[in-house]
Amino acid sequence: MKIRDIVNRDIVNLINCENEPIHIPGSIQPHGFLIGLTKEFKIIFCSENLSDYLSFKYTEVLGKSFKDVFGVENFNVINDSALEANVLQLKMKLENKSFQCFFHQSDDCYIFEAEPCGVKTDSVTDVYNQTLQFINYLNTTQSLKSLCEMVARETRSLTGYDRVMVYRFDKEYNGEVFAESCREDLEPFLGLHYPHTDIPVQARELYMRNVLRLIMDMDYTPVPIYTIDDGSGRNLDLSLSILRSTSPIHVEYLKNMGVGATLTISLIHQGKLWGLIACHHYSSKNLTPEIRLAAQLQGQFITSQIDVRQSNEEYEVSRKTNNALEKVTGLDLPPIMESFKIISVSPELLKLCNASGVSLYINGEVYKNGITPPVSVIPSLSDWLFEHSNDSNFATDKIIDFIPTMKSVWDRVSGVVYYSLGKNNSIIWYRTETVIEVNWAGDPNKAIIKDANGLHPRNSFAKWKQISKNRSTPWLYPELNVAAKYAHALQKQINLMLLSDEEMKYRKLSEKLKESNEELQNINWISTHDLQEPLRKIQVISSMVLFKEKDNMSENMIDSLCRMNKSAMRMQNLLADILKYTRIKNSDKAFELVDMNRILEEILFDLKDNIVDADAEIVVSDLPHVYAVPFLMKQLVSNILLNSLKYSSPDRKPLISVSVEKGVRDLNYGDSTYFKFVFKDNGIGFHQEYAENIFNIFTRLHSQNEYMGSGVGLALCRKIIQAHNGYITAKSSLGNGAVFVVYLPYKRDAEVD
């Protein structure tokens, strides 16, 4: 059996440290031993220092079962725990020695770690009392700052470390010592900042997985882990391991700070790494499992209280901004452009966000108050923010990072909150620059130093002051929340203004339309009355001339007078049809129950001469009663029948049928129910492509010489049907007659026995 170690010997430096596989170092710290087991509890990994704690070497246990090496009783303990997903702490006797053991699953292996219980064992009662006291202290803190200060103090009292810091990340993962408790003789780190490069990405990810990390002695020599060499390139993920060896870069970094031992507890809030409790000791130090657990609980207390404490701190801000919101939304303003000028100068508009200035950009007009960019720049700034935010909202405390070329903006302001109110409409709040001093633990630009031996972490952590410019104070959540609410209210104001404008336009248009209709009525009166008189005179005079002078006139003169007489008659008919068309008004006539059989009888009597002259046959089925305007129904049916008689075929006897269906539904015209009247003839027909056009006024398919008519008849039919909330269709083919279908609303109570 060939055995090899799995130590990761890839060269790690500050150039590639962000890619360092710190979860698979292949080694552990020496204050305990580690073995790795298959799912069948066969030992396939073992740390080299096994013989430092037990009577056998790693080479003697590799390939054997856990039961054979550690006994049935211990095997039963871990076998019962094998299904648990989290790290389990177990106290076990191995060769009559007490060990604190940790057991967890890693990929397809189980990892078993053991530390001797030789370190001083703290009383569980003492730890409990300290934890209870800590919980009682929680009620004495109001702000997040005071809570973190109390946690730092109590964690140091509990653990005995020389320095305990609550380390908070910003959005770029730069760190700040937010709270601290340390020995009086030590230089405080409180308020110092550390660049994000001090804790690379994969280290932050590991802090998310394993919330407690202990380095007992910074001068330790890593202990390699060995495995059976089966040629598969086997490795072991130690992400959740208690003993996992630390990155040499990290060890060098801590040694440069003079640190001898560390304890790190992750502070995870809303699924993100909010910060760390970082404990430093300036000599080697180990902790009992009870104290480790108690310290870890204190970290969990912080994260459980972050929202509560931040809410307390933000309450006063929220109260003031909401008061301002009530005042500014309570302004009773008309929906006109001048209202936005009144809004812009309201002091409450600035108090909404505790802003230095504000601008409204409404329909191309700019209204502003306080410290803002120049008026000429605001439209282009609004357009840029509209595109950048995708017609939404945007907030930053450092606008120069986004628009470095727009100097006229960031020379006046540094922070903006933008809300889109539609194209060419926006509201923007502004904040001026706040010069901030940031104290770094060493120059962040020199986080890496180079010497004859290569690249190393910095060894100077002396305070380095940086002046932060072109940045405003950050926008708080209550301020952004109130800004969003007011932007929504302002959008309503704009919509009301637009509706008011549209209503005004509609009113003016209605007035113009009313005037036009009155003019049209006057014109209609002139055309149907004043023009009738000269047409009648033309007919009378031409008839008299023909009667008296016919024998003395040439045939051409007689023909001209006849044609003039016919033209005058056509003009009279056209004027009469126009008058009928324009007088159809649904509101002017009352609907009543109309017997369509009686209507048809009257029409057939009126058209008796036309029917006889055409030798036509008209077949009528029994017709229903309908709610309609009687004279309009008579006009409708009369026009359809006259149309069929006019366009009868000379090759066959005219045949016209009239039938009806009750309760018909046509989904093409909604879900209503109709009477379906069908008028069918065997006349000359027409091409189906003209089925819609024939209902347009003055539309004719034939010349006046072929068929007399004004082109108003069928248009009049459609208008009558529309006035009755129905519709009319036509279907035909050339030479095969035509079918006109009239749909009138069906009402069951219209049926009469």
TrEMBL record:
Residues of the Histidine kinase domain: 526-748
| Top class in the EC scheme | transferase
Residue ranges the record marks as coiled coil: 499-526
Q: Which reaction does it catalyse?
A: ATP + protein L-histidine = ADP + protein N-phospho-L-histidine
Show the GO MF annotations: ATP binding
Q: Please list which residues make up the signal peptide.
A: none
Name under which the protein is recorded: histidine kinase
